[in-house]
Design goal:
Blueprint lengths: L1 E2 L2 E2 L10 H11 L17 H9 L10 H8 L8 H11 L4 H32 L31 H10 L5 H20 L5 E3 L5 E3 L10 H30 L11 H7 L1 H30 L21 H43 L12 H31 L6 H9 L18 H23 L7 H19 L7 H17 L6 H12 L1
Antiparallel strand pairs: 1-2, 3-4
Helix pairs in contact: 2-3, 4-5, 6-10, 7-8, 7-11, 8-11, 8-12, 10-11, 11-12, 11-14, 12-14, 12-15, 12-16, 14-15, 15-16
């Protein structure tokens, strides 16, 4: 609702105390000016609210920023009667009748907070009648007319919250830049130890290039694809937390107490823990031991020789101890990056589920129908589509490198070009493969399927409406084409034609997810400013 050019939320009258009520109002930006597109500009911050109260003409004394900060904190302190008046003016959007309603609601909420604290104090006193020597007792102050509060005890953040903070806190460039910097550092180290460009002669006589800088799953993947994926996830997460989520919540004049984003993230804590164990322990430590450490210590093995085990075939180039240290650092960096990759997919799932749950809560207010505004849905779906495309490209990079190591190509570029022209020349000899174990085939399949599952879940949960349905079908077709491209890698001679075509289409989709549907974009633009 809107009053005097500001977002108005009617008093919920649901029995909330002041802390609960204020937290809900601040989250949806009640009383903030309406944006250009007709939606809230975002939640209140202590600085913005303190400035808004100070700018009230009749408020000559203003309000201290520290006082406003205490309202935002988790504590049992209340608010003074004079500040209730100014807060009612803000939430009432300078409307006399609305301000009166909010004055009564805030006063009642403050009274409920006072009663709750007194009951808690009596219960505490009954349970512990005497103070313990040397122990600091934190007693709640009188609620009436007091804005001060005790400082709450800070609890340690969980793995889920810390991971979400890596994506949603600070600069959006932090995580992509850190990933790029780590890959660059490994590249420099490979050059220093001398394995950046290495060739060796295989037992069947094929001379292969296995240098670190020639492996796309260690260079192109970590320097381009993963930074792109992290930037897309961060962009979508910030869009959801700071804009789109409030657009949905602003459509109703009541609140749902269980609609906290932090609570949604924490609900996935077991998923983050499981992914961390799989990525670090199995994909990191165990894979490094099986693929690199044991072959380096014992020699031989059923895995293809790569930059990680080249010390076995060229001991004069790099020593085994140096190779062990370098591969250990590389696999540590790899497993942490892939943990963040799967954590990004979990965040995408969290956004989709949160969107669907909020929408289900709004349906009773909308007569059992989905909200007609599809702009938020298509914006979220675009971000999910981009992340899915990059995720499948990550899997393609992994499988291409793994397939190359077992092929008879001299280097990965020559191998792809040779396969590209194999359908042209009739006297072409079919490519031969060497029988190696290829665990990357399995891990890349997990990456591709996980990315596709998130896209499928979003397509089901997010009802984009008839206006954007054509765009969603095109996105789905591209995802299907790219996944088929992944499956067909090295399946037959000439697979590179499909590979190149799929990658080109997917790359275009990153820039134009709707694939040239001007009517959809025009409709979105018109709806956004209406």
């Amino acid at each position: 609702m809107e009053k005097n050019g500001k977002i108005f939320v009617a008093p919920p009258k649901d029995g909330s105390d002041f802390k609960e009520l204020f937290k809900q109002l601040a989250a949806v930006g009640a009383g903030r000016p309406v944006g250009i597109d007709g939606f809230p500009q975002g939640p209140w911050t202590p600085e913005l609210l303190a400035e808004a109260i100070t700018q009230i003409d009749s408020n000559r004394a203003g309000v201290d920023l520290r006082t406003v900060q205490l309202w935002f904190q988790e504590n049992d302190k209340g608010i003074s009667p004079s500040n209730i008046n100014w807060l009612a003016r803000i939430f009432g959007c300078d409307d006399r009748e609305a301000t009166s309603e909010w004055l009564l609601e805030l006063s009642a909420a403050q009274a409920r907070l006072t009663a709750k604290r007194r009951g808690l104090k009596k219960a505490t006193s009954a349970a512990d009648p005497g103070p313990v020597t040397g122990q600091i007792q934190m007693q709640p102050a009188d609620a009436e007319g007091q804005d001060d509060e005790r400082v709450p005890q800070k609890k340690g953040l969980s793995l889920a919250q810390r991971t979400e903070a890596l994506f949603g806190s600070g600069s959006p460039l932090n995580l992509p830049a850190s990933t790029f910097a780590g890959a660059s550092a490994l590249g420099f180290l490979s050059y220093i130890v001398g394995i950046h460009s290495v060739t060796y002669s295989r037992p069947d006589g094929v001379v292969k290039q296995v240098g670190f800088l020639w492996a796309p799953n260690w260079t192109f993947l970590f320097m381009i694809l993963l930074p792109l994926f992290f930037s897309f996830v961060t962009e979508l997460l910030l869009l959801w937390k700071q804009d789109a989520r409030y657009r949905l919540l602003a459509q109703t004049n009541r609140f749902e107490r269980k609609v906290s984003w932090a609570r949604n993230v924490q609900a996935y804590s077991y998923s983050y823990a499981a992914v961390f164990v799989i990525c670090v322990i199995f994909a990191g430590v165990f894979q490094w031991i099986g693929v690199c450490l044991i072959p380096l210590l014992q020699g031989g093995g059923d895995y293809a020789t790569s930059w990680g085990t080249v010390a076995n075939v060229q001991p004069d180039l790099i020593s085994v101890p140096v190779e062990i240290v370098f591969t250990g650092l590389a696999y540590l960096y790899m497993c942490l990056c892939f943990y963040l990759f799967f954590a990004g997919l979990i965040l995408l799932h969290t956004i989709i589920h949160d969107f669907w749950r909020i929408e289900e809560g709004l349906m009773p207010l909308l007569g059992g129908e989905h909200h007609p505004d599809c702009v938020v849905r298509i914006r979220v779906m675009r971000g999910i589509f981009r992340c899915t495309i990059v995720g499948i490209l990550v899997a393609i990079c992994m499988k291409v490198q793994s397939s190359y190591l077992s092929s008879d190509g001299a280097d990965i570029v020559t191998w792809i070009v040779h396969d590209l022209f194999s359908v042209v020349y009739r006297d072409h000899h079919a490519a031969n493969t060497f029988g190696y174990r290829m665990p990357t085939h399995y891990s890349s399949l997990l990456v591709a399927i996980s990315a596709c599952v998130v896209f499928l879940y979003g397509s089901i949960r997010l009802n984009v409406g008839a206006r954007f349905r054509e765009a969603l079908w095109k996105m789905s077709a591209v995802v299907g084409l790219l996944f088929a491209t992944y499956l067909l890698i090295d399946a037959f001679d000439g697979f590179s034609i499909i590979l190149i075509a799929g990658v080109l289409v997917a790359t275009y989709g990153l820039f134009d997810p709707e694939f040239g549907l001007p009517r959809s974009r025009k409709s979105e633009s018109n709806q956004g400013v209406s």
